[in-house]
Design brief:
With 611 residues, this protein is α+β, with helices and mostly antiparallel strands. The chain has 13 helices and 29 strands. The two termini are 72 Å apart.
């Protein structure tokens, strides 16, 4: 043992001697070099490094600042556009602490555009879907005025046209026999007892017996066991309630007859659009069954009640059915041209200028009289949606200038500098740890590639966030139902409603991993919904819907809803037999990928019960 220890000590001594000798030789050789040559070499290396750092633009993600790339593109975590990291310049004494000062080059690179806030009369074009319906004021319900047996049916099928006074049925009625006998007897007393005579005729009139029929009974002087019931109006038979041989009692329905020369066109208007709709507004519409033809009409009635299921109210247009080409239940699509009629002009800003974060609406106002573009964060209060604009209730003045394009990039610059921003209202510096970012990025990518890997609701999620996410789910269900109806225009509209609901979700309510996870989901959901709204082809929309559903399912599982039960359903034949999922508020299968072609194709794969 002592021998081994001695050998180890000797080895260490030799190693130390060798290191000392190497250091001495290095000093000797470096000293023999020309010191004037060594300084420029060091200077060149340093200058080259500085030059590279000055010209190399770094790109990052505003929501995931740990992402750093040397070229523009999409964030690998959330899919959002990357923004230049070095876009913020140092401000001047005139600039506020939270002002965002951009160089001209950075503003051009980010494609920043601005618009002046104007005051004018707000206008909106409202797209509506509806159906042709029979005019309720021209519908006649024929009921049995007296009991009896249907001996003969002169109108045998629904849809048959009849004219006023035409025979509908022949009936045997003991009550009618008695009434005829009373009239015949009273006719002989009409000189001496006119009141009895008039009473007998009045009784028949109250049974909708025409004066001509009454006169025939009186002239004939005898009763007939079988009596003809005549049509009280001209029109089309909508319903036939009886058949030959049926016994009917007084008050039972026989036929429903509708005059289809005048029709109603009833559109469904969402409750948020009702404030823009008034009696007399013009609607330009088309009928799906008659392509290439456009019609015009005026609003004659707005339903005072909201349908609790669809959250819509009926908007009626009365139309003349010339040529009888229009049929009840035909689909129609229309555009209502409306403008505010009450009050003065309003302040308007483009929708693209607004950043939504739950309760707050944020714009970036351009500071006037600056040599370089300077923008200032401002929270505003918005009024109604006015087409491509929002009405501003508070926070802006006429003549101010707001950013309308590249707004998110301005906000991203503010976040990276720790200034007041949409996601950072307190103006705190954002951490950009690389290692932590790589772990989160890899985790997000794994979650997006494993359908069944979903975080549970063990995390503390504020109920307000659950409520806002439930609003997104409700809008999603309407969009899903539009897919079931295979209506591309309705799908686009409902997808827009989902986007609006998604924009109202306050992500600041979440903290830590829950916040980062929501950002992962938000990026995917936003892209897929945008693809749906940008397409008018139902199959392309369904492709994006297919990809959206997995992420939305994960977010519902992770955070929970205030809805009772959510059904996660699956059709193996969707997506060319690769299968497709969707969420539903009902257990019954109503397939959004095939609609009427295969309405019930599918099964329930998961049931999410929210407490």
């Amino acid at each position: 043992m002592k021998t081994i220890i001695k050998q180890i000590k000797d080895n260490y001594i030799m190693l130390i001697i060798a290191l000392i000798a190497g250091i001495i030789l290095g000093i000797i050789f470096s000293g023999s070099s020309d010191s004037r040559k060594s300084e420029p070499v060091l200077a060149d290396n340093h200058e080259g490094h500085e030059h590279e750092s000055e010209n190399l633009q770094t790109w990052t993600c505003s929501m995931h600042p740990q992402i750093r790339q040397d070229s523009p593109g999409d964030c690998p975590v959330c899919g959002m556009d990357l923004v230049p990291l070095t876009s913020v310049q140092s401000g001047t004494e005139e600039d506020g602490a939270d002002d965002i000062v951009l160089s001209e080059a950075a503003a051009g690179l980010a494609d920043i555009r601005t618009t002046r806030v104007v005051r004018k009369r707000p206008e909106k074009n409202i797209f509506l879907q509806g159906k042709v319906q029979a005019d309720e004021s021209n519908i006649t319900e024929l009921t049995a005025r007296f009991g009896g047996r249907i001996e003969q049916l002169h109108v045998s099928f629904t849809g048959e046209n009849v004219i006023k006074g035409e025979k509908l049925v022949t009936i045997y009625s003991p009550e009618m026999l008695s009434a005829q006998r009373e009239l015949v007897e009273a006719a002989g007393l009409k000189v001496n007892r006119p009141a009895v005579y008039e009473s007998a005729r009045l009784k028949l009139r109250l049974w909708d017996i025409s004066d001509r029929q009454i006169d025939e009974i009186e002239e004939r002087g005898e009763v007939r066991p079988y009596f003809d019931v005549l049509s009280p109006a001209s029109g089309t038979v909508m319903k036939r309630h009886v058949a030959a041989g049926d016994y009917v009692r007084t008050g039972e329905p026989l036929f429903m007859i509708a005059d289809l020369s005048e029709l109603w066109l009833v559109f469904d208007a969402y409750e948020e659009d009702l404030q823009w709709i008034s009696k007399g507004d013009n609607i330009e519409f088309t009928i799906q069954a008659l392509p290439g033809k456009k019609y015009n009409g005026k609003v004659t009635f707005v339903d005072p009640f909201i349908n609790p299921v669809t959250r819509t109210a009926g908007v009626r247009v009365e139309i003349n059915n010339m040529g009888m080409k229009l049929k009840p239940e035909m689909f129609a699509g229309g555009t209502l041209y409306s403008s505010a009629t009450e009050g003065s002009d309003e302040l308007l800003i483009p929708k693209s200028s607004v950043l939504w974060t739950g309760k707050r609406s944020v714009v970036y106002v351009k500071v006037p009289d600056r040599e370089t573009p300077v923008f200032r964060y401002r929270e505003i209060l918005l009024g109604p949606d006015a087409g491509e604009y929002y009405i501003v209730e508070e926070g802006l003045q006429e003549g101010e200038t707001v950013a309308t394009n590249g707004v998110f990039k301005i906000d991203a610059s503010a976040q990276l500098e720790g200034k007041t921003s949409m996601m950072n209202p307190e103006g705190e510096k954002i951490s950009t740890g690389h290692d932590h970012g790589e772990m989160e990025m890899n985790s997000a990518m794994e979650d997006n590639t494993h359908d069944n890997h979903v975080e549970t609701k063990g995390q503390d999620v504020p109920e307000t966030f659950n409520e806002q996410l439930t609003g997104v789910y409700s809008a999603y269900i309407d969009m899903k139902d539009a897919f079931v109806s295979t209506d591309a225009d309705a799908v686009r509209k409902e997808a827009g409603t989902v986007i609006e609901a998604l924009g109202k979700v306050d992500m600041a309510l979440l903290e830590g991993d829950a916040h980062m996870k929501w950002m992962d989901y938000l990026g995917v959901l936003g892209k897929r919904l945008e693809s749906i709204t940008n397409s008018r082809d139902i199959e392309s929309q369904r492709k994006a819907f297919l990809e959206l559903n997995k992420t939305f399912y994960q977010s519902v599982k992770a955070y929970g809803l205030l809805a009772d039960t959510v059904y996660y359903q699956y059709c193996p034949m969707a997506d060319d037999n690769r299968g497709g999922y969707w969420l539903s508020n009902e257990k019954e299968i109503r397939n959004p990928y095939f609609g009427d072609m295969m309405m019930t194709c599918g099964e329930v794969k998961d049931v999410i019960i929210n407490n």
